[in-house]
Design goal:
The longest helix is centred in the C-terminal third of the chain and has 14 residues, at about 125-135. This protein has helices at about 20-35, 60-65, 80-85, 105-110, 125-135, 155-165, 175-180, and strands at about 1-10, 40-45, 90-95, 115-120, 140-150, 170. It is about 35% helix and about 20% strand. It is globular and about 45 Å long. The chain is of the alpha/beta class.
Length: about 180
């Protein structure tokens, strides 16, 4: 079964939320790359046209233009540790929680023959959980890596893991993923 690693929104804006997860994320990336398995990154951001108080983008309306990530800004950039590991991997630009909406993510995964998606990154209970659920709904076996995800706080992190694990897929630790994906 072809398995892909999907690294969600590891950007400067979210860096404080991934302090504990970052070493595990880099371990997963290195592992998948060493096996020549698909490794894809997402990068969340909004265009100037979306960053208005009357934005058509629901996320911008929810959080406000000043608390949304503008494409091309320093906070939009991938963290240096992650950027150094992207290599020739695909970077999927997105502007909502679900990395499948208005992107070519599903097409890329299908072209690569992927049947299982392993999700890590930030935020556990927003973009990671939503994208992992969307992968499940598109027929991919989906794992969410609990110690390779981060969120605004532990309560939110745990809530995302619990909800995903109940109905959508397995919640695993990095060590378990390394043991299963060989």
């Amino acid at each position: 079964m072809t398995t892909a690693l999907l690294i969600i929104d590891m950007q400067t804006y979210f860096a404080p939320m991934t302090t504990h997860a970052l070493p595990n994320i880099t371990t997963l990336i290195t592992h998948f790359q060493s096996l020549s398995l698909p490794t894809l990154f997402t990068q969340h951001g909004h265009t100037p046209a979306e960053l208005t108080s009357s934005s058509p983008n629901q996320l911008v309306r929810k959080w406000g233009p000043s608390d949304s990530i503008a494409t091309g800004t320093p906070s939009w950039e991938l963290t240096p540790e992650i950027k150094a590991l992207t290599g020739a991997s695909e970077i999927v630009a997105k502007n909502t929680y679900d990395a499948f909406i208005n992107t070519k993510l599903e097409e890329i995964l299908r072209e690569k023959g992927v049947e299982r998606v392993v999700v890590c990154g930030v935020m556990t209970d927003c973009c990671c959980d939503t994208t992992a659920r969307a992968a499940f709904n598109r027929g991919f076996e989906t794992w969410l890596v609990e110690d390779a995800c981060g969120s605004a706080n532990e309560r939110q992190h745990e809530a995302g893991l619990r909800a995903f694990g109940y109905a959508f897929g397995e919640v695993l630790k990095t060590k378990e993923v390394l043991g299963r994906v060989k």
